[in-house]
Amino acid sequence: MSMTDTKTHSPALELEDLSVAYTVRGRDLPVLSNVSLTIQRGEAYGLVGESGSGKSTVALALQRVLPSNGRISSGHARVAGKDVAELGATELRRMRAKDVAMVFQDPGKALNPSLTVGRQMAEVFEILGSSGSEAKRRGEEMLGRVRISDPARVMASFPHQLSGGMQQRVVIAMALAKDPALLILDEPTTGLDATIEAEVLDLVDTLRQEFGAAVLFISHNLAAVASLCNRVGVLYAGKLVEEGPARELFNDPRHPYTAGLLRCLPRAGFKGGAALDNIPGFPPPPGSITQGCVFAPRCGLVQERCRVDEPPLYDVGTGRGSRCHFHDKVDDLPRMSEAPPVNTPERGPNVEPVLKLKHLSKTYELPGNRKVQALRDVTLTLDPGETLGLVGESGSGKSTLANLVLGLAEHDDGGRISIDGTEVPASVHQRPREAIKAIQIIFQNPDSALNRAHTVKHLIGRAVEKLAGIVGSERESRIRQLLEAVRLTPRQLPAKPRQLSGGMKQRVAVARAFAADPRVIVCDEPTSALDVSVQSAILNLLSELQAERQVSYILISHDLGVVRHLSDRIAVMYLGRLMEIGPARSVIEGPHHPYTEALLSAAPTVTGERGERIRLEGQIPSPIDPPTGCVFNTRCPRKFAKICETEEPPFALDDEGHAIRCHLPREKLGRGRRMEGVDVVEAGA
Amino acid sequence: MGSPFGRFLLRRLGLSLLTLWLVSVVVFLGAQVLPGDPGRAVLGPLADARAVAALNKELGADRPPVEVYFSWVGGMLQGDLGQSYAYRAPVAPFVGDALLKSLKLVGVIFLIVVPLGVGAGVIAALNAGKPIDRILSVTSLSLTVIPEFVSAIALILVFAVILRWLPLSASWPTGAGPLTQLQHLILPALPLVIVLFGYIARMARAGTIEALSSDYTRTAILKGLPWRTVLTRHVLRNALVPTITVIAAQTGYALGGLVVVETLFRYQGIGNLVLSAAKAKDFAMLQAGILTIGAFFIVATLIADCITVMLNPRLRAELGR
Ligand SMILES: Nc1ncnc2c1ncn2[C@@H]1O[C@H](COP(=O)(O)OP(=O)(O)O)[C@@H](O)[C@H]1O
Ligand code: SF4
Ligand code: SF4
Ligand SMILES: [Mg+2]
């Protein structure tokens, strides 16, 4: 076979019994064991699994860029037919320059902060033999191909001058510039907004067809994988436990782990619908399970045999494999966690809303006498025990609204915030203790919210003292009570944050927020940093605490699945304005605002079905200089008349309390596509 | 200057001048507060009362302090640093000469220590965890804690007395060429090189390790770039920014160490000048010397800040806001 033959006929990637070990303090930790998979040319393969399962290690190993303590201990990785372990230094460089490209999770980190985009772009072509000016020209052309409208400006920019979505486009352009046989994407959208995520996924999908590159798509976001990939592999504790065509695998999983992951996902239902399940326990540390099935300690179908015989890869259909002895019994997998009670908020004419916001605006002064209205005239109420979901692209004012409610930023004169019917001052410093106690927050990233120097006991204890004003022996019992409520054990009291997993840290944050019996908790992307299995446990915890204590939530999330699962009502924001607010079902199913319609069409679902994507053209306009008339008119696909540009539409309210800010009459507004639940994997309650 | 960098420079310059002014006030007050009667303090208890009064007049001790301060500062602005009591001559030439000598010494110190320290740090980082890294780390750490006078004496013994490779005295014969001067300066430079080496090496090591494990370095490697390009263009550029800040901060430390080294090697630099002025109670000289050291430190920091900003586009952009 000649060289060209190898290049065109061999698969883009072939892993054959690949094992990788990291040496830590003299001991070898096997993080991948005997992983075999093949990605054909032009195929998109998704690799999913909880964090720590070894997904990134696969990507690093096949390019030979493992950390210095890692090595391929056995097996082969072949890229475009060439065994990477056998390549010499020059050939290895040539492989990296031509055959394989990688896009990392955080585009901000993948770009060199001290070089211009142009320099970094040109480099790729220079290494392939282009002259300086030609490299620059081709770089610009490449940026155009990833749909960057102003390549020359972007080339001259430094990475930090670009938005996250733009940075990721640049990284993708750099990756595709070499026309690789294999493109690896390691969690490429985890740090991005829902709409930007959808854009990036779309882009990858189109480019994949344009360039004919094979894709290895690594993600813990099952829906993103479902929407992009033909085939999927499920990695657990360094083993490929299931593999198969994406649709079939997600519709009819043949391994309890895959089934468990899918049951963690908030899907088609609304609040009060099917409860999320979770996978109890944690993935085992590498190398700790030497006998039997690696999933046995967490498996709901485990039998004696599982702890003794390691399951081989059973053939479970065309192109499908499962490492489970009982792969035909997966449908019988019992629920692994108790379904949490679901709260119905108190409503009615006699119920005083717990939180009332009237005409809240926030204007920031910029140097040069400019002003930004980060929030404009928001009026809404929150009932006791109710969850209000807050959605909108980044920059739409969600966090500003949260900060005003918390008093961390002061709203403009003329606005009013009342808690339980009593108006409170704008600034948290002027609020009475009762009012401060009443509103708490849970952040996206528990790491930055928890002081690393303190123990769990101290962290919760301080909140109990400061907020609830409880001291002495009662303090102890209160801490224990909270600990129990968030399902931590007293064993964790002396631990510091770094000794805890992401999920446990978030539980500590939840315990802290509940220390003083709050009335309202702002949950700012509470689970977007977490694995689905951990996310479902935290979401269930939030439901349970709400039912128990009648607390209300303002839930900010870019994951529409999470929002619809938890919310009674949903508010949609754009450019600091409320565009739509109403009961969750009405907002999701429509008729809804054209902006909501676009947001919903962008969300990927695990069934892989995506309706017609409504693309929003252009960037979000600058809030310094918002468009006249309807602020959405510069991007609105349904804009219909001059009036959209001249007059701000009023809120049109129906009798269900569903308000929409659009000039179009309701019957002309869009409706959501029906999301078909995949009931096969829905756990019986 | 309209550019953000120009505005930054102006602002930092203003700040430096303010600092310098504060230093001048502190130095002046120090000299005022210490002896109640400077003339008596200088001339001793047995001196003639008329001589004391005359000296007090010369030192300005008979005038209100504010007035003295302003005439001192005023003179300084015109390049008149005052009259040395001990030498009965203008202070300026002495200070100028001493400053030049110290600058030469500091120059030699940094010429040796920066490449050595950065080189060692980078090599250690590239071989992190391997024996060479451990050796370099332990060495640099232990060198840092040796006081200058200990290492200075040891160095003198070994290189000047026993081996006779280098001249003992730091002062070169008048009219000596740059090479001879350099030969004289190496020995006095070494004690401070030894101390600074550790700091710089550790900073360079930490910066390089961080840059090496970054995603952008991985991206560069995965572009198939030659290792040398990856290292110089992507790793070092980002790794050395914090190191430069450290180097600048250490300049101040080097100046403190100069007093010890210059005294030991009998080198007529600014440290030595200040010390002997203090001993001789030569206030004008003392004030001018300390002020010069202050000015030198401020300028060094300013330069370091500018370099840091120029190397870091993000900082540069923040200036714009
Ligand atoms: N440099 C390293 N040294 C030791 N262990 C490591 C190293 N990098 C990763 N690991 C471990 O290897 C396992 C797999 O990690 P990784 O491939 O990053 O998983 P994923 O990408 O699925 O989150 C984890 O247990 C992780 O802690
Ligand atoms: S082999 Fe046994 S323990 Fe492993 S996944 Fe199947 S049923 Fe569960
Ligand atoms: S008012 Fe016009 S521009 Fe605004 S959302 Fe409605 S149709 Fe679109
Ligand atoms: Mg990973």
UniProtKB/TrEMBL annotation, chain B:
Bilayer disposition of the protein: Multi-pass membrane protein
Alphabetical keyword list: Cell membrane, Membrane, Transmembrane, Transmembrane helix, Transport
Transmembrane segments: 12-34, 105-126, 138-162, 182-201, 239-265, 285-311
The keyword Cell membrane belongs to this UniProt entry's keyword annotation: yes
Family matches, as InterPro entries: BPD_transp_1_N, MetI-like, MetI-like_sf
Protein family (similarity comment): Belongs to the binding-protein-dependent transport system permease family.
PANTHER family found in the cross-reference section: DIPEPTIDE TRANSPORT SYSTEM PERMEASE PROTEIN DPPB-RELATED (PTHR43163), PEPTIDE ABC TRANSPORTER PERMEASE PROTEIN (PTHR43163:SF3)
Protein name: ABC transporter permease subunit
Source organism per UniProt: Jiella pacifica
